[in-house]
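Researcher: Sequence recovery benchmark, item below. Answer with residues only.
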C-alpha cells in the first residue's frame, strides 16, 4: 500500500514540496503541518471532470500550434503575438508525476510544480508561463474577480523555470476558457472563447515563505487553527460537541 512521505527534521533526503502544498500553507498553516508532518490530509473534493476535459482540449490544440509554430486562432483574436514554445524537457514539466524541479539549498526542499505551458512572444522572444482554467460564469471576467492564488502559482512556476536556466518574463499569463450556451434549451454543444489576462508577477514572497515553512515544519508546536479554515472549524465544533 502506498504510504505518504512526511517531513522529518534534519533528514539528508530532500523533502518534496509542490505548488499545491504551498497553496495549502497560505490557506491554513495548521492543516499544512498536519498534512506534511503527520500525513493527515484534508478530505478530497469532487473532481471537476468536465472542466478538466475542456482544459485538456485546449492543450491538445496548443500542441498542434506548437508543431506548426503558429498562433492559436483565439489568441490571435485577442491581438496577442504568442505561440507555444518548445523545450527539451517540456513534456516532463507538464507531467503531473514529474514537473519542474529545483532543490532549495537553504531548506533542502525539492520544489516541484506542473506547468500548463510556456508561450513565447514572436516579436520580443520573451518566454511567458501560463496556466489555463475553465469557467462557466455568465458575467464578463475582470482582474478583480481572479483569485490571487493563480498569480501566486504563476510566480512559483516562473521561479522554478528560472532556476532551470530558462529566461522568463516577469509577466504571467492566465487563460480562462469560458463556456456558454446561447440556446434556452439543453443542447448537445457548447461554445467557447478565451479570456486572457496578463500581470507582472511578484516573486519576492517565495524565499521568505520557504524559510517560514521550514521553520514551522521544524517546530515542535502545531499552529493554531485558522478562523477562516472550514476544516478546522468543523473539527473543533465536533470536538466541542463531544466534550459537552
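Model:
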Amino acid at each position: 500500500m502506498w504510504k505518504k512521505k512526511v517531513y522529518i527534521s534534519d533528514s539528508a533526503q530532500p523533502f518534496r514540496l509542490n505548488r499545491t502544498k504551498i497553496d495549502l500553507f497560505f490557506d491554513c498553516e495548521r492543516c499544512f503541518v498536519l498534512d506534511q508532518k503527520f500525513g493527515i490530509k484534508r478530505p478530497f473534493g469532487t473532481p471537476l471532470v468536465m472542466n478538466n476535459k475542456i482544459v485538456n482540449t485546449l492543450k491538445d490544440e496548443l500542441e498542434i500550434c506548437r508543431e506548426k509554430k503558429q498562433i492559436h486562432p483565439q489568441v490571435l483574436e485577442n491581438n496577442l503575438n504568442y505561440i507555444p514554445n518548445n523545450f527539451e524537457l517540456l513534456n516532463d514539466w507538464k507531467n503531473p508525476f514529474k514537473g519542474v524541479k529545483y532543490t532549495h539549498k537553504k531548506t533542502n526542499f525539492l520544489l516541484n510544480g506542473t506547468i500548463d505551458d510556456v508561450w513565447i512572444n514572436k516579436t520580443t522572444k520573451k518566454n511567458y508561463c501560463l496556466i489555463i482554467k475553465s469557467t462557466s460564469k455568465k458575467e464578463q471576467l475582470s482582474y478583480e474577480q481572479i483569485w490571487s492564488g493563480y498569480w501566486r502559482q504563476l510566480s512559483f512556476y516562473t521561479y522554478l523555470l528560472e532556476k532551470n536556466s530558462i529566461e522568463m518574463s516577469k509577466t504571467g499569463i492566465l487563460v480562462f476558457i469560458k463556456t456558454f450556451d446561447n440556446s434556452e434549451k439543453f443542447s448537445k454543444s457548447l461554445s467557447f472563447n478565451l479570456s486572457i489576462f496578463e500581470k507582472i508577477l511578484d516573486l519576492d514572497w517565495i524565499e521568505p515563505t520557504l524559510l517560514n515553512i521550514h521553520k514551522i515544519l521544524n517546530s515542535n508546536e502545531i499552529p493554531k487553527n485558522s478562523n477562516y479554515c472550514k476544516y478546522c472549524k468543523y473539527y473543533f465544533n465536533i470536538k466541542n460537541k463531544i466534550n459537552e
